[in-house]
Amino acid sequence: MEELLVVTTGGTIDKVYFDDKSDYQVGEPQIGRILEELGVAFRFSVIPIIRKDSLHITQADRELLRDAIAAQPARHVLVTHGTDTMVETAKVLAGVSGKTIVITGALNPAGFRGSDAEFNIGTAVGAVQSLPAGVYIAMNGRIWDPLKVRKNVTANRFEAAG
Hints:
The protein has helices spanning 31-38, 59-71, 86-93, 117-130; strands at residues 4-10, 15-18, 23-26, 44-52, 76-80, 100-104, 134-139, 142-144, 149-152, 157-160. By secondary structure, it is of the alpha/beta class.
């Protein structure tokens, strides 16, 4: 892998908690800091495209994301995304050819102790380097085909669709 392109869209992985407001808001992308702290042995660049909860990502946002990824020379792309609609976004990104695109996120904000963010990012980094061109989802320690996975909101995990 010559260089990893990281594209961020917001979602829970980047949420921060404001005590004075008692709510969460999508903050700065966390993945660059995480990759630096982990001391990864590859070059990467981070391009923030959207900063939204995935429930607020529109079809136009997905097309912007697809076009931005397609316009970049990088063949290996990791996308951070909110978990609620990452499957829908993955289906739109399937139109990008010649790239390995892995989408990941977190069920708990990266800034929280015990967050799954680092584990999911690590899984995604391994996947993006070893899988053939296509679009994949990396969540809960597994690599998923976007056409065969769904988020189980009640259990708060990803599982086989059907």
